[in-house]
Structure formats: structure tokens, C-alpha cells
Amino acid sequence: MTETRPDGVPRPCPPRRGEEAFAQDADARLGNFVKQAEQALIAAKSEALRPFDLTVAQYAAMMALYYAPGQSSAQLARVAAVTPQTMATILAKLERKGLIERTPAKAHRKVLVTELTAEGESLLLRADERARAVEERLADAFTAQEHAAARDLLRRIAAALRGGAHEAEADEAGAPGRPGASG
């Protein structure tokens, strides 16, 4: 049997044997549902972006550049929720495809700033139509009130896992490129 807190919220139990115990414990672990939703979103966006030969992370970086050109690799890594090393690989691929240009920053010659090329912007806008269709499909599953509640709950989840409410407030303020972040 799954334990509950005094307020009725299920608590994950230490592992117990048996399929029923497994099902109860899995149901009590909110992280399982967050991960399932993330995987479903990434799969749907990956499928939508496949005809454009873009990954979700490449798309997120390009969207960030569309909204705020001239970002560094580190900024783009944060927006796309990937490591700086992964972003370096992403940017190298996008540059080889002729979709972005990287030039030294005026203030710091060792920092490269990135911008979309005309070809990159054109491809991105076509790809975004398909990615937005995924977001529309997701939005259609909720009323306006449910959509707002889901957003708020997901912000609280992120803040709780990052260690504080100040993270949720920062997320509410938004950052350049947020619409493409992680899908």
C-alpha cells in the first residue's frame, strides 16, 4: 500500500516486491509523469522537425537566435537545456549546414556570437509551423484555465527541484528564446 502525507499527497515508498506494489509506487512518483510528458513532447517535436533535418535542440537554439540574435554558445546551451559541449556540437553542425554564422564578439574576441543566416531563418520559420502544430495539439487538450494551471504546476515542479521559489519567479519573467526551449 502506498503511504500518504497527512494532506493526502501520495509518498513514494521504499521498493517492495510485486507488480501491484510497483504500480502503486510508480503512481506516487510525480517525476515519472513529468518524464513521460517530456518524452512524449520531444518525440512529437522530433517527428515534426524530421523533414527539416533538425533536432529539437537545434530548433531550440535557432528559435533563441531568431528572437535574440547574437547569443553566445553558453546562452544557447541554457535555452536549449543541453550542456555547453553539446551546444558546441549543435552549432558546428548548424554552421556546416549554412544555417548560422558565428563571429567574434566586439567586446570579447574569444567569445563567438551566433546569428541565423537568411537560409537558416527561412528553414526555421517553415520548421516552426510544424513545431507550433505540436504545441497547438497540446493546447487543444486543455481549457484556458487548465492550461494556466498546468503552466503554474510545471513552474512549481521546476522550482522545487532546483531548490527554491525564486526559480519559478525567474522563469515567469522569461528569457530570450523561451518558446523553443526544450521543445
3D architecture notes:
It is a single chain. The protein is mainly alpha-helical and 183 residues long. It has a single domain, classed as Arc Repressor Mutant, subunit A (Orthogonal Bundle), CATH 1.10.10.10. Helices cover 62% and strands 8% of the residues. The protein has 8 helices and 4 strands. The chain has helices spanning 19-28, 30-49, 56-67, 73-80, 84-96, 118-139, 144-162, 165-173, and strands at 3-4, 10-11, 100-104, 112-116. The chain has a two-stranded antiparallel ribbon. Strands 3-4 form a two-stranded antiparallel sheet. Strand 3 and strand 4 form a beta hairpin. Helix 3 (56-67) packs across helix 4 (73-80) and helix 7 (144-162) crosses helix 8 (165-173).
Count of runs of 4 or more consecutive helical residues = 8
Q: What's the CATH class, please?
A: Mainly Alpha
CATH superfamily membership:
Winged helix-like DNA-binding domain superfamily/Winged helix DNA-binding domain
Given the C-alpha coordinates, what overall shape results?
elongated
Give the oligomeric state.
single chain
> Into how many domains do the coordinates divide?
1
The proportion of strand residues reads: 5-15%
Q: Trace the largest sheet across and list its strands.
A: 1-2
Summed over residues and divided by their number, the pLDDT gives a mean of: 86
Topology, number of strands: 4
CATH topology: Arc Repressor Mutant, subunit A
Rg, Cα atoms, Å: 20 Å
CATH architecture: Orthogonal Bundle
The profile of the biggest β sheet is: 2 strands, antiparallel
How does the helix and strand content classify structurally? mainly alpha
